[in-house]
Amino acid sequence: MRLMYKSCGIIAALFLSLTLTAYLPPFQASITAEHTNKQSTVETPSAAETKSSEQKTVPVSWDKPSGGSYPVITKNEPIWIDVSIKDQKVYIKEDDRTLYTMVASTGLDASPDTTTPTGTYYIQAERGKWFYAPKYKEGAKYWVSWKNHGEFLFHSVPMDKNQHILSADAKKLGEKDSHGCIHLTVPDAKWVYEHIPYDTKVVIH
């Protein structure tokens, strides 16, 4: 009789063990799947974001040509100037061909008084090697007028009254910074002053 009870106890224990074993794997699988899903939702930086973070903006040297050696412009060559506000670039062009690219700063666009006008203009007679505007407490070298006879100009990066570069503005070449004029590196402004003739077309967009 004891043997029979003992045998029944062993059989019951085996049955319980088999039952737990049968249900355990799905439970474990569920935990594993949940853990895997949590791991898969962890955000990782995209390749583009990683590349972007690795890229460093190289500042423009305001005392050097921004596009390398300047082109040789012959007399009566049909050149024109293409100014891209979006790109913050000045393109010296002959027909559709770009001869030279300059890094620039156009108007801040914070108000009508700091906006670079868009449209088609022509280089005017007014130009000079230096000016200073007490109103803004800044001046510039090598200016060339393209609108309102001395109001809107191509000129160098801003300087103080002693002709010292205002580095805070000069460092912003390549982004909006001016009161409406078009800032250039000192050599680029000098090249425009010396080589771009009167009545040259200027398209600003």
UniProtKB/TrEMBL annotation:
Location of the L,D-TPase catalytic domain: 79-205
Tell me the first and last residues of the signal peptide.
1-22
Q: Which GO terms of the cellular component aspect does the record hold?
A: extracellular region
Q: Where is this region: Disordered?
A: 35-60
What the entry lists under PANTHER family is as follows: L,D-TRANSPEPTIDASE, L,D-TRANSPEPTIDASE YCIB-RELATED
InterPro entries the UniProt entry points to: LD-transpeptidase, LD_TPept_cat_dom, Transpep_catalytic_dom
Q: Please give the Gene Ontology molecular function terms for this protein.
A: peptidoglycan L,D-transpeptidase activity; transferase activity
Q: What is this protein called?
A: L,D-transpeptidase catalytic domain
The pathway to which it is assigned is: Cell wall biogenesis; peptidoglycan biosynthesis
Q: Where is the active site?
A: H155, C181
Instruction: From the UniProt record, give one GO term of the biological process aspect.
Output: regulation of cell shape
Record CDD domains? YkuD_like
The annotated regions of Polar residues compositional bias extend over 35-58
Say which species the protein is native to: Sporolactobacillus nakayamae
Q: Which UniProt keywords apply?
A: Cell shape, Cell wall biogenesis/degradation, Peptidoglycan synthesis, Signal, Transferase
Q: Which domain of life is it from?
A: Bacteria
Q: Which residues cross the membrane?
A: none
